[in-house]
Amino acid sequence: MAELTTWKDQEMSKLKRELDYLFKRFGSDFGSNLFVCKVAEAPSVDIIETPDTLIARAELHDINPEELDISVTADTLILKRKKSEEIVEDSTYFSGVQKTSGSFSITIRLPKKVMVGGIRASYQEGVLEILMPKAKPGNPRVIKVEVK
Fold first, then answer.
1. How many other CB atoms are found less than 10 A from the CB of residue 56?
2. Hey, is 139 helix, strand or coil?
3. Inside any domain, residue 63
4. How many CB atoms lie within 10 A of CB 90?
5. Bigger pLDDT: 46 or 63?
6. pLDDT band at 40, cuts 50/70/90?
7. 47 and 16 both lie in a single domain
8. Do the beta carbons of residue 95 and residue 87 sit within 8 Å?
9. 42 has a pLDDT exceeding 90
């Protein structure tokens, strides 16, 4: 059984080397790297809690704030970005279209309930800041139990 595993590993390594060579040669023959793909990374979001508010901060340096969709419910913050573009490349040896997508969606469960009506968002120098006032805790309802 060990011989079969060794043979399989050798064949897979050989196949990987041949595919790597094929892709490198294909790209160099056409003068362009056809397999370059831009991947959007979702930004990290920091949640800061003060006595009266929750503050969400995200660094979005390469993102136009008009591409953002921000949704807040009483206990959830959702940040979304949907963007895709096509770049047409024409040259003597190559003609093609490069598609890029910069979409992401982040859903964060908030540690406290917030008042949706009082939420404010601002964007300055690549930093998005969302101020969410905390909901006031309601008075507990006291219920008497009837014994029959």
1. 22
2. coil
3. yes
4. 8
5. 46
6. low
7. no
8. no
9. no
90 alpha carbon, distance to own chain's centre: 31
Per-chain mean pLDDT for the chain: 79
Closest CA to 132 of 120, 145, 143: 120
Task: For residue 40, give both structure tokens.
Answer: 């959007």
Q: Is 114 exposed, middle or buried (0-12, 13-18, 19+ CB in 10 A)?
A: buried
Scanning the structure block, which residue is given the tokens 């011989």? 3
Domain CATH code at residue 91: 2.60.40.790
- The structure tokens listed for 63 are 């993102």
3-state class percentages of the chain: helix first, strand second, coil last, to nearest 5: 25, 40, 35
Nearest CA to 132 out of 147, 110, 148 is that of 110
As given in the structure block, the two tokens for residue 122 are: 């601002």
Is the separation of the CB atoms in 102 and 113 below 8 Å? no
Location of structure tokens 């029959």: 148
Token readout for 97 is 């279209």
**Which residues are CB-contacts of 42 (< 8 A; sequence separation ≥ 6)?**
104, 105, 106
147 three-class SS: coil
| One domain, residues 27 and 49 | no
One-letter identity of residue 124: Q
